[in-house]
Design goal:
382 residues; 8 strands; tRNA dimethylallyltransferase activity; Dimethylallyltransferase
Amino acid sequence: MRFFLASNGSRAPFLLRCLQRSASGNPKPRRMSTVAPPLRLRCHHLHGLYGGYGYGGSGDSNGHGSEEMQRLVVVMGATGTGKSKLSVELSTLFSGEIINSDKIQVYRGLDITTNKISDAERHSVRHHLLGELDPAAGELSPAGFRALAGRSIVDIAARRRLPVLAGGSNSFVHALLVDRFDLRNDPFGALRRPRAGREEAEEGLQFRCCFLWVHVEPAVLAEHLDRRVDEMVAEGMVEELERYFAVEGTAQRHPGLGKAIGVPEFRGYFTARGGRTAAAYEAALRAIKANTRQLAEEQVRKIERLSAMGWSLRRVDATATVAARLTREGADTAAPWRRDVAGPSVAAVAEFVKEDDNGGHHVLRRRSGSCRTRVVLPSIKV
């Protein structure tokens, strides 16, 4: 198994050891195993540091007895459904920090093409693993993400903050959350072949999770994604890609970032002799739109697969919000978003975090006085 480590100054040796130990449970790199041990065994000593967010009560449904489990809010959904917006709002209300789980957005560069949330839209909420890794250092594997994201979660919890995982790439989400990650087990392989018999039994998770699935009806989402590509072009995506391809061989040196939707589609336009024609330009844009829609469909199928495996996903519907935005420019999207997405999500997370180990409610009192307090945030692009 091949890990990679982005250039990270003096922290590189520590991160390398973190990756090696997560993969094998043994500090010697040559003894790497294909099964990664559960992170909770290495961070249970943080019990009591979590303030109002706390750990769960005694025991849990995953068969871990009385051992306390780290709490984690997980925001899932297809691309373009509003996961980033919801994650920022929840983190603002509940003193959280966000861990990015998009396998392309972990790399530096191509911020428009990869549709990274802007600094302004983050509203000072700290983000982890968002544009942090050197794309030339290699491609981050699910096991590597498990180690890096797990370290971020421990760090966030140690500072009495709420970890919020914003997905992203469901292979990364699965690798991080399962109690024991086995490289040989592809939970989504069954999507590519017929399944016989009943679904597999529920997998044990190494965190106590509050799952939120932001859903948009397929036809509405497809129209929204097509329009979003046009907006990205207006924001400078093509010019960004031109600068990217101006350095010869860049895409070939970036095995992870080079897979971003937009890079393969525009490669011929920018690199082939005589490739910069109007027809080639339009073909590239059509391919980007088609591949983005296909990505969204695949993401939904994988989320449904995780649900069938026993993950308790709470679905919130952003269809009305996205449809209102499509209807006309400047349409009121705040009301349906608050009613259908933010409201139910805030209620779910409030219930999830309200009781600490002593049954207290410090977070909600300290932060907002009541879980019913309305939080008004500036607009964040869906």
